[in-house]
Amino acid sequence: MKLLASDASGAFAPPRGLVRSTKSGDKVRNLCDGGDANLCDVVEGDISSADALRTLCDGVDALVILTSAVPKPKIGSMIAALVSKILPWAENKRPDFYFPEGGSPREVDYEWQVAQIDAAKRAGVKKVVLVSSMGVTQIDNFLNTMGGGGDVGDANILLWKRKAEMALVASGLDYSIVHPGGLLNKEGGKRELLVGVNDELLAGDRRSVPRADVARCVVACLTSPSAKNLSFDLASREEGEGGGATTDVDALLEAASGMTYDYSLPMNSPVPLP
Fold it and tell me: Which of 21, 49, 84, 133 does the annotation list as catalytic?
């Protein structure tokens, strides 16, 4: 999670980020021009801590929420899945996953995202950008089965993300919600970016996007008038495809602002939605 604050002169102050450990903090600092402490402000704490969120949001203008639960594979099931691929007569098996204690989607993707939104509102933050995921309109999306077999609780990660989105939309804050497709560790600024709504991009064959391009869009959302109360999906073509690399992200957001995102979806969710 990151925040940007401006000083009295209107110049941007160093971005502030919340990390859980000194090791993570050092990684963030190293991203800021080799560790220059003047270029970033790191707060060590946990998103479940009201004190940490209060410190994080104090005196800032914008909040970017990047938190997400992370499923872990069960070692035994990974071995079984590997063996099933090696033995020609064996039925292919998928590995099973679990969420560690205190790290379920219900907690991380809903309860603690809402805690961040509430802290931002109390602190007078003007803008919140939430990075969610494509697939949030699909109850039967595979990601919803990871960690709990599809039951309400530790599973349904995309549906808990959806519920947090709805809380942000209802908060009264100026918001932007970005739904990236599968994240790629590829160089940004090299591909044509695609925007859509309501998971329509998942029906095509271009459903992923470089992390760096997601970051470009997030930064643009902080200041672009077109990003006010905007929710959109984001993917990319392969490098060299289409009309060339997207260079004007503001124009991309303007195109997205002409689309209508439907928050009545999904219907009949096992996770109770507003």
Answer: 133
Residue 239 token pair: 């490098």
- Spatial separation of the C-alpha atoms in residues 215 and 131, rounded to whole Å: 10
- pLDDT of 156 reads 93
Q: Dump pLDDT digits (tens) for 95-130.
A: 888 888 889 999 999 999 999 999 999 999 999 999
Is position 133 annotated as part of the catalytic site?
Answer: yes
Q: Report yes or no: 114 and 47 within 8 Å, Cβ to Cβ.
A: no
Among 211, 205, 212, 253, residue whose Cα is nearest residue 233: 253
Tokens read off for 133: 């995921």
Q: Which residue has the higher pLDDT, 192 or 82?
A: 192
Tokens representing residue 140 in the block: 């039967």
Under 8 Å between Cβ of 188 and 132: no
Q: Where are the alpha helices (DSSP H) in the chain?
A: 22-31, 50-57, 75-86, 105, 112-123, 157-170, 211-221, 249-257
